[in-house]
Amino acid sequence: MASTFERGDASCTVYSLVLSVSTPYAPAADCPDDQITTISNVNTPKEHIMSGQESQKKMTYVRLGNSGLKVSRIILGLMTYGSKDWAEWVLEEEEAIKHIKKAYELGIQTFDTANVYSNGESERIFGKAIKELNLPRDEIVVMTKLYATVGRTPKDKFADRSQAEANGYVNQSGLSRKHIFEAVKHSLERLQLDYVDVLQCHRFDYDTPIAETMQALHDVVQAGYARYIGMSSCHAYQFHAMQNYAINNKLTPFISMQNHHSLLYREEEREMIPTLKMFGVGMIPWSPLARGQLGRPVSQSEATDRSQKDAWGKYLDKTKEANNKIISRVEEVAKSKGISMAQVAIAWSLSKDGMTAPIIGTTNLQNLEDIVGSIHVKLTEEEIKQLEEPYIPQAIVGHT
After folding, report:
1. Global pTM?
2. Total domains, the chain
3. Which residues are catalytic?
């Protein structure tokens, strides 16, 4: 299957028509210079730095879709930070704040969390980090998500909505107007913030009318609780319907899609990525390292605590033979270039048409610094072809 989708004259015409007529955001210029800003060796003001120390940043910043919001080319995902009562591989507060501090020092100013991560602990820790590290609110981009039921303690987990409701969590999941407003209020309390920069729907809600959801999201923005809105893993037709409803009714449209995409999972390239390009929506994929599988040789596939304990990683077993071939090729390219496997995998992600910034999560400070180095890695067309060739189609993973 094709690994990229070229924008031809016909699709470009549709793209321009939809955006110029319907959305408040002007299409981005084709010239990369209009989209990307690089800050290298810049001394950050002392009043904005943890402990009053000076720091040097070397990071690239890019507009999120056709909006005016700029995000770092690498986004730090905060699912990894919270409570071990929620997941054994999670880093708790002290270590989490060290990682957030290091990320900011490296130039990452965009952070993605969700209310369901450690049932609110991830948001709480990030909010504390913002205060404790004195992160400048006018610079950092705070992204969170809502949809799932947030348990009262980190240990509380529910297989589905009916189980949550049976345990006293009625109206505490999904994308109803009531839940959206309640969830935003609680997220802001945990984050100790007046607003988030991007409020994202974690999943599509089959039980709530799209009209209700999009009006509620628009009203959240109008109320000042969020600056922008985004969507996460869903089918392309669902995203298309939600975005079109917002556009046609002059409501706030999505500026981002947080979807599942990596060298080991490329199903989004069939329908979702062309849809995002048509609407001028930025792509910020989760799991670009396939839960770490792309960061180490096949012989070390169980090398980390998370790879052994995170149930999400088990989906890789369904296409294990093809995945192992891809992982081996990542290793080959890494050796030939004298860089890490993680840098190769993220460099591939950054090379893809329509990509804004992958979301990475790490429990190791050295790995974090290594991954950030991937923004300076350029793969040749031959290397990209070598990495992509073994891929085989697979079932949808990440949404229903």
Report:
1. 0.85
2. 1
3. 117
